[in-house]
Amino acid sequence: MKKLLSLLIALPVCVLSLAQVPKYDTGVINTNGVSALYTADGTQNFKSTGLPAYFVPYPGDVTSIFCGALWVGGMDAGHQLHIAAQTYHQNGTDFWPGPMMDSLNYSTHQDTLWNHAWLIYKSTIDSFREGKFGSNIPASILNWPGNGNISLGEMAKLAPYVDSDHNGYYDPSGGDYPLIRGDEALYTIFNDDRGPAHTETGGKKLGIEVHLMAYQFKSADTTVNETTFLHYDIFNLSKNNYDSVYYGNWIDMDVGNGGQNLIGCDSANNFWYTYDGQAYNANGDGNFAGELGYLNAPAAQSLAYMCDTMTHFMYYNYGFSDTMGTPTTPLWYYFYMENVWGDSTHATYGGNGFGGSTKSNYMFSGNPDSSTEWSEITQEMCREIGKE
Question: Do residues 163 and 176 lie in contact, with contact meaning Cβ atoms separated by under 8 Å?
Answer without folding.
Answer: yes
